[in-house]
Specification:
Layout lengths: L2 E7 L3 H12 L6 E7 L6 H7 L6 E4 L5 H11 L4 E4 L5 E2 L4 H6 L7 E9 L16 H4 L9 E4 H6 L11 H13 L3 E12 L6 H15 L4 H14 L2 H15 L1
């Protein structure tokens, strides 16, 4: 089986409806669909049962948080690759998994782009993540809603570290590069709409990520500090004015 699509949910019936509808309407057939619900007390289980015919596996029981729930999904996944489409996120079109499957070529981590959806309903243009390496991972992350990860790699690393609150997906990517020299590949597809409602702040994630690096890979700390200084300069007004000036000069 080519792909395991995993959805986790807790008390987000409306978001779950949107997610499950987008997954179960896919034209692609070589995938399984797994839903892990954290014992929701709203109408989430009713939504799951509505789409039950399109599911390979589902469960509704208490868990220990988002990473524990995602690890439960990994534990039952049988596809070559896993992608997480959590409640509120949804695929851009019914044929997107069919298109993406052509790129699932054996590399460990294959990723596309996402649209961000905010609480006020606004949607950003696609987030073009750079071609990934360890240097870039020290200041950015990949959206799991557009990332296909080899199931064997997820199992080798024991899934996501559950002791972290928000930075576990980022740490997994760092760990993949450092310990397994995982191959990353960017593909020219927009995969999904990423629901930013309720997502932990970038500051929280950054602080926790630094703590994880300090504990496991302290040799990266100087590089992270240099990257932060560079990004601070790139966002500064003098740098932005210089960029505009150079752009005008090139345009002449």
């Amino acid at each position: 089986m080519k792909l395991s699509v995993i959805t986790i949910n807790f008390n987000n019936a409306a978001g779950l409806q949107k997610t499950m509808q987008s997954v179960t309407s896919q034209t692609f057939n070589d995938y399984e669909y797994i839903v892990i619900d954290g014992g929701s007390t709203d109408e989430s289980v009713d939504v799951i049962k509505k789409y039950e015919s399109g599911l390979t596996y589902w469960v509704s029981e208490k868990d220990k948080g988002i990473w524990n729930a995602m690890n439960k999904g990994i534990a039952v996944a049988k596809g070559d690759y896993c992608i997480f489409m959590n409640s509120g996120d949804y695929l851009v079109a019914p044929d997107i998994l069919q298109k993406a499957s052509a790129y699932l070529n054996g590399k460990e981590i294959i990723y596309g782009d996402v649209y961000f959806i905010f609480g006020n309903g606004s949607v950003t243009t696609p987030v073009h993540e750079p071609d990934m390496d360890l240097f870039k991972l020290t200041y950015t992350n990949l959206p799991h809603q557009a990332t296909f990860i080899k199931t064997t790699l997820l199992n080798k690393l024991g899934g996501y570290k559950e002791e972290y609150k928000v930075a576990s997906d980022w740490f997994f990517l760092v760990q993949s590069l450092i310990e397994h020299h995982a191959q990353f590949e960017k593909i020219p597809l927009i995969i999904s709409y990423f629901d930013k409602t309720g997502v932990s702040s970038t500051t929280d994630s950054g602080h926790e990520g630094i703590d994880a690096i300090r504990q496991h890979y302290p040799f990266l700390l100087p590089q992270i500090e240099r990257n932060n200084e560079l990004r601070y300069y790139q966002l500064s007004k003098p740098h932005q004015l210089l960029k505009k000036l150079l752009f005008k000069i090139k345009g002449k």
